[in-house]
Automatic annotation (TrEMBL):
Reaction catalysis annotation: [protein]-peptidylproline (omega=180) = [protein]-peptidylproline (omega=0)
A GO molecular-function annotation: isomerase activity
Biological role: Chaperone involved in the correct folding and assembly of outer membrane proteins. Recognizes specific patterns of aromatic residues and the orientation of their side chains, which are found more frequently in integral outer membrane proteins. May act in both early periplasmic and late outer membrane-associated steps of protein maturation.
Annotated signal peptide: 1-19
Species of the source: Psychrosphaera aquimarina
Protein keywords: Chaperone, Isomerase, Periplasm, Repeat, Rotamase, Signal
PANTHER family: CHAPERONE SURA (PTHR47637:SF1)
Protein name per its UniProtKB record: Chaperone SurA
Domain PpiC: 173-274, 283-383
Subcellular localization(s) per the UniProt record: Periplasm
Keyword check for Transcription regulation: no
EC number(s) from the headed UniProt entry: 5.2.1.8
Domain description: The PPIase activity resides only in the second parvulin domain. The N-terminal region and the C-terminal tail are necessary and sufficient for the chaperone activity of SurA. The PPIase activity is dispensable for SurA to function as a chaperone. The N-terminal region and the C-terminal tail are also required for porin recognition.
Length: 429
């Protein structure tokens, strides 16, 4: 009997001890930093530190001290918190549909499907849901920065021109293969004779424009030194040409005819037979028009899409005109005033999904409603053409170089300013 009591008491004590151990309070996440109206939790800081350490381990990369790493993590979270609070005040909301569109674009840029990308993310050990939410925040942060920093970036035409000049100096020198025909004029010719020679030069130009062979015409009618060579002067740089030609030839493309140009010797006709040392940029341009409907708190994603389906049905049955619908309903103010027309443009300037849809259309065809980060669209491909965009490409390249440089500089200045203006209190380390 005594032994049974002792055993029962021992078991009872063991249960109390076990219950006490299980009842011990577990450490909970706590506020580490207050930022204006928001807070940063210790768990958020540790999550960034763990992520950086994990990436460094995979890449066999060394890291600074834990203290320095923590300081960087706190600094990033403070700036993100300030910007996300600004996003809320600005009314920036990244919907699931918008996020799906961004994910689709990322997957396409990697030549994989969204499902394959999801599998890769999970395989790396990260939660796909966490990845989506991080991306949602990143999209919102980009919108905040673009909205606040873009207006601080100013680029003058002189800056663009100067940079193009520097780029040209550092690039390979262009050489032009010149074809030349001279309709000579005697040094003391009367005006009537000059006029007659001018008429001959104009007729030569007409023949060449109608497809006559330049070299044959040169051999037959040129008074120039290279007439027997078909007027071919060979390759030469701009600075090697007679000054009469250099300014007229600059920027021209292969096959262009120039003239007649008047000099003391007579009337000159020049053809660009070939160009070497130039990176010619030819682009496919499209002329399109669209209707944009932007979802809001009042207008759901589904309703926005259904509106566009209704418009398409009206256009197809002839009860409505696409241009008039765009003018009345499209929320793209720049194109709505022009019946939805976007003007001739390189498709690369459009959002990836917009560009993809345009590429799938035949001339005159309308798309089905599709989503980009700007909202729901229907688009019609009106025309296509190929354009020489060499000079424009230089301008765009120079502008983009200057914009990226200045945007990065202004972003740093802006981030420093908003941090200086924020209320920040460190509660615990």
């Amino acid at each position: 009997m005594i032994n049974k009591s002792i055993i029962s008491l021992t078991l009872l004590c063991s249960l109390f001890v076990s219950a006490a151990i299980q009842a011990e309070p577990k450490p909970i996440d706590h506020v580490t930093v207050i930022v204006n109206d928001g807070v940063i939790l210790e768990g958020e800081i540790q999550a960034i530190i763990d992520e950086v350490k994990s990436t460094a381990l995979l890449n066999n990369q060394s890291l600074p001290s834990d203290r320095a790493l923590r300081a960087q993590a706190v600094d990033r979270l403070i700036l993100n918190s300030i910007q996300m609070q600004m996003a809320e005040r600005m009314g920036i909301q990244v919907s699931d549909a918008h996020l799906d569109s961004v994910l689709q674009n990322i997957a396409q840029s990697q030549n994989i499907s969204v499902e394959q990308m999801r599998q890769e993310i999970v395989k790396s050990g990260e939660s796909y849901e966490r990845y989506r939410e991080k991306l949602r925040e990143e999209v919102a942060l980009n919108e905040v920065r673009r909205g606040n920093v873009h207006r601080r970036v100013n680029i003058s035409l002189q800056e663009v021109t100067t940079l193009i000049g520097l780029m040209d100096e550092n690039s390979s020198k262009e050489e032009y293969q010149i074809g030349h025909i001279l309709v000579s004029v005697p040094s003391k010719a009367a005006q009537s004779e000059v006029d007659a020679k001018k008429d001959i030069a104009d007729k030569v130009i007409s023949l060449l424009k109608d497809g006559s062979d330049f070299k044959k015409v040169a051999i037959a009618s040129s008074s120039g030194a290279k007439a027997l060579e078909g007027g071919d002067w060979g390759y030469m740089g701009i600075n090697e040409m007679p000054s009469l030609f250099s300014e007229s030839v600059r920027g021209k493309k292969t096959g262009d005819l120039i003239g007649p140009l008047r000099s003391g010797a007579g009337f000159h006709i020049v053809k660009i037979l070939d160009i070497r040392g130039r990176q010619t940029v030819e682009v496919k341009e499209v002329l399109a028009r669209h209707i944009l409907i932007t979802p809001s708190i009042i207008l759901s994603e589904e309703k926005a899409k259904n509106m566009l389906n209704k418009f398409l049905a009206q256009v197809e049955d002839g009860s409505a005109d696409f241009g008039k619908l765009a003018k009345q309903h499209s929320e793209d103010p720049g194109s709505a005033l022009k019946n939805g027309e976007l003007g001739w443009a390189n498709p690369d300037i459009y959002a990836p999904k917009f560009k993809e849809v345009l590429a799938s259309l035949k001339i005159g065809e309308y798309s089905k409603p599709f989503r980009t980060q700007f909202g729901w669209h229907v688009v019609q491909l009106m025309e296509e053409r190929t354009a020489d965009a060499t000079e424009k490409s230089k301008q765009d390249q120079a502008y983009q170089i200057l914009y990226k440089r200045k945007f990065a500089e202004e972003t740093e200045n802006w981030l420093r300013e908003i941090r200086d203006q924020a209320f920040i209190e460190v509660i615990a380390e």
